[in-house]
């Protein structure tokens, strides 16, 4: 009886791993990003995953990171006090990330519909919203000493990876 169970388990592990994307494909995907090391770390953290699994995983990761960024922005707005320029900047970022959250949510709906081009388009808007938050109207608008630029960079990176994955699924 135990022997049969072991055989079934081995069979399922074989089937699961046979659909996983090979390491070279992860490297090829990550070479297309601005931060290949971050990309490889993110994608390799999801074992035995195929392209669809990785795409869903990156959308979920984007959702978590956008939500964390919104929480940070709310905290920064509360702490900006009398600094009107900084408060205005953070409120603008809040608007950007509120739109980004809607786009991440919509990208999951599109993913479930297998509209992978739509996923790429929605995540492209997320990437733009994060970039607009960091750069403002012009790069000299402010020098933000908070963690917000790093949070935005992570959101941009995850969105970029999702865009590349969704293109791979579309082809």
Automatic annotation (TrEMBL):
Residues 21-165 form the Pectinesterase inhibitor domain. The lineage of its organism: Eukaryota, Viridiplantae, Streptophyta, Embryophyta, Tracheophyta. Residues 1-20 form the signal peptide. Gene3D superfamilies: Invertase/pectin methylesterase inhibitor family protein. SMART domains: PMEI. This is Pectinesterase inhibitor domain-containing protein. It comes from the Eukaryota. Pfam families: PMEI. Belongs to the PMEI family. Keywords: Disulfide bond, Signal.
